[in-house]
């Protein structure tokens, strides 16, 4: 049983009556008895909350930063009217605007309560419980009960870098020759035959065509358009580092989505792997139409794991999933202890068959700290920031000497730079 503020007001009025008219123990007991009886009677005549039935409908997914609506249908199969309040409670990160609504539900009828949610974090959001408070006719007391009504609202990555996609698609059309720009290079996809000119690679001579002609004929090649791109998200401890209001993993996911959209339009097969010491998410051989929906759905619940990434296990998993020759895009952090000492020894098993691009998110705040010199504290901070930048540069240089392509950029620049590097590799025929 629950009581309301109205009962407290009645009790205050009773105290005034006792003080003025019946200033005795008997008067106090008499007023108290009336109040208890009224409260019990009011709670007893309130509609039952245990028999209520609930059903949820509405959005099951929403892009982070936008709003979703989830409806709750409440049915009263009892014989008494349920009048009071309903609270549809969700976890705080679900971003519920208003979770308490008045409820007036006659016997045998239903009502629909709609809750608007604007999630503040990526991932799955679940409701806590539905609490109904049913008051009696006097409004002094009532009944209260909670019900579990399960639902899942998945907050998907926002894909903010989609604004960079049109410009990259225009460059891709140029690369494909759709705007009269034919790219020559050390590609592997046959294009045409032409006469030999001084400076051509003699390995490109087509001896059969030359035998049928009076001139030496060479083959021309263009970069392949149907390569395999494997995007790997490192979900280890370094991905949990926050830059601004979001972890580095979120910026890596944004870059992965832009690259996937671009490579998918280029006709390449795109797969996704999220790994630290185990596979956290995977998308394999999706159809072009399902590529982005499957990727955002797979990445949405992935969170950074506060443990060191097993780079040997990661390389083993990549080699198992990659084809004969693939572009492997590893979105990780250029941490000297993690990548420099963990990834570097495992590279030979990967680089002898595949092209590796390592993309990392750096904190622009380090640049600001490294240039601050106004006081002793800032000088020490600048020294620490410069040390971190130097170690990152050393790791990047070590990887470049091994043949790894490197992108190290701020969160807002990592996605377009990864896409540009992909287009550059494709134009050069490296893929």
Task: Give me the CATH architecture of the largest domain, please.
Answer: 3-Layer(aba) Sandwich
Form type: elongated
Q: Count of helices?
A: 12
Structural class: alpha/beta
* CATH top-level class of the largest domain: Alpha Beta
Strands in their spatial order, largest beta sheet: 18-17-14-19-20-21
Q: Report the helical percentage.
A: 25-40%
Write down the overall mean pLDDT. Answer: 88
| Integer count of domains | 2
CATH superfamily of the largest domain: von Willebrand factor, type A domain
In angstroms, what separates the terminal alpha carbons?
71 Å
Described by strand count, sense and barrel closure, the largest sheet is: 6 strands, mixed
CATH topology of the largest domain: Rossmann fold
Show the helix and strand layout:
Layout: E1 2-3, H1 5-20, H2 25-44, E2 53-58, E3 61-63, E4 68-75, E5 82-90, E6 100-105, E7 110-117, E8 123-125, E9 127-135, E10 141-147, E11 153-156, H3 165-175, E12 189-195, H4 207-211, E13 217-222, E14 228-234, E15 242-243, E16 246-247, H5 248-265, E17 269-275, E18 279-283, H6 291-299, H7 311-321, E19 326-332, H8 336-343, H9 348-351, E20 355-361, H10 364-370, H11 376-401, E21 405-409, H12 411-427
Parallel strand pairs: 3-11, 14-17, 14-19, 19-20, 20-21
Antiparallel strand pairs: 1-10, 2-4, 4-7, 5-6, 5-9, 8-11, 9-10, 12-13, 15-16, 17-18
């Amino acid at each position: 049983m629950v009581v309301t503020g109205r009962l407290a007001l009645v009790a205050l009025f009773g105290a005034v009556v006792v003080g003025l008219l019946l200033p005795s123990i008997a008067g106090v007991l008499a007023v108290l008895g009336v109040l208890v009886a009224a409260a019990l009677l009011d709670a007893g005549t309130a509609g039952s909350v245990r028999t209520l039935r609930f059903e949820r409908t509405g959005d099951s997914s929403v892009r982070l930063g936008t709003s979703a609506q989830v409806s709750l249908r409440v049915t009263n199969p009892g014989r008494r009217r349920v009048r009071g309040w309903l609270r549809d409670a969700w976890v705080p990160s679900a971003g519920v605007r208003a979770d308490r609504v008045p409820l007036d539900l006659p016997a045998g009828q239903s009502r629909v309560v709609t809750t608007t949610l604007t999630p503040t974090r990526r991932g799955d959001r679940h409701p806590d419980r539905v609490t109904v408070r049913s008051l009696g006719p006097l409004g002094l007391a009532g009944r209260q009960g909670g019900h579990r009504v399960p639902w899942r609202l998945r907050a998907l990555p926002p894909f903010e870098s989609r604004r960079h996609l049109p410009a990259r698609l225009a460059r891709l059309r140029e690369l494909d020759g759709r705007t009269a720009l034919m790219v020559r290079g050390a590609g592997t996809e046959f294009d045409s035959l032409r006469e030999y000119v001084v400076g051509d690679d003699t390995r490109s001579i087509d001896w059969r065509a030359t035998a049928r002609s009076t001139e030496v004929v060479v083959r021309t090649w263009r970069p392949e358009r149907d390569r395999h791109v494997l995007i790997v998200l490192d979900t280890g401890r370094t991905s949990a580092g926050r830059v601004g209001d979001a972890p580095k993993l979120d910026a890596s996911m944004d870059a992965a989505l832009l690259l996937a959209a671009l490579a998918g339009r280029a006709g390449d097969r795109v797969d996704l792997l999220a790994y630290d010491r185990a596979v956290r998410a995977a998308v394999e051989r999706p159809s072009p139409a399902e590529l982005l929906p499957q990727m955002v759905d797979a990445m949405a619940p992935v969170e950074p794991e506060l443990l060191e990434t097993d780079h040997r296990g990661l390389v083993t998993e990549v080699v198992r999933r990659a084809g004969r020759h693939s572009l492997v895009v590893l979105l990780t952090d250029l941490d000297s202890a993690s990548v420099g000492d963990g990834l570097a020894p495992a590279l030979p098993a990967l680089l002898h068959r595949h092209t590796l691009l390592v993309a990392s998110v750096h904190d622009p705040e380090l640049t600001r700290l490294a240039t601050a010199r106004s006081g002793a504290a800032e000088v020490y901070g600048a020294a620490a920031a410069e040390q971190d930048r130097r170690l990152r540069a050393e790791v990047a240089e070590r990887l470049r000497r091994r043949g790894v392509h490197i992108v190290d950029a701020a969160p807002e620049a990592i996605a377009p730079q990864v896409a540009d590097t992909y287009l550059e590799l494709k134009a050069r025929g490296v893929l």
